[in-house]
Write a structure and sequence with these properties.
Layout: E1 11-17, H1 23-29, E2 37-44, E3 48-49, E4 52-61, H2 65-79, E5 82-90, E6 92-94, E7 99-107, H3 110-127, E8 130-136, E9 141-145
Parallel strand pairs: 1-5
Antiparallel strand pairs: 2-7, 3-4, 4-6, 4-8, 5-7, 8-9
Helix pairs in contact: 2-3
Length: 147
């Protein structure tokens, strides 16, 4: 019986889903016997944005979002010595403190794991077509790029 290294594809989990995200699921997905460093980032819904109190928030994704998520992941794999990678983003109505996005990367060493994880979340934010609709306590609302 082989270890987790036997999985050929280092992209272990990619998803855009309406259900609550699980930190345990994402962390477990990047487990690897050769990893000396695993970095996990959790993006949560905060109670304010731009100096205004947020009262409601909803994420929407373009149908191509998961394909773009895979392209981002593949680019991170090409640029860093990643052993395993996972990324999930939630869509639909979320509450303050809910996890909106969870990404994780495992590498042989911690430094490269930190760098790869930062690139992963930054590239998701800048390229994956997911938007958030926010309502504020002052009655205003806006659509903005997610993450």
């Amino acid at each position: 019986m082989g270890g987790m290294n036997d999985v050929a594809d280092p992209i272990r989990l990619l998803a855009v889903r309406e259900t609550p995200l699980s930190l345990d699921e994402v962390h477990a997905a990047v487990g690897d016997t050769s990893a000396g460093g695993t970095v996990v980032f959790v993006g949560t819904v905060r109670d304010h944005d731009g100096g205004k109190d947020v009262t409601a928030l909803e994420y929407s994704a373009h149908p191509s979002a998961e394909l773009e998520l895979r392209r981002v992941a593949e680019k991170v794999l090409a640029d860093f010595p990643v052993l395993a990678l996972a990324a999930v983003h939630r869509v639909g109505a979320l509450s303050v403190t809910d996890a909106a996005v969870i990404v994780a990367v495992s590498c042989a060493h911690r430094g490269e794991a930190f760098e790869a994880c930062r690139r992963l979340i930054d590239d998701i934010k800048h390229t994956v077509p997911i938007w958030k609709y926010q309502r504020f306590a002052d009655g205003t609302e806006e659509w903005v790029s997610a993450c």
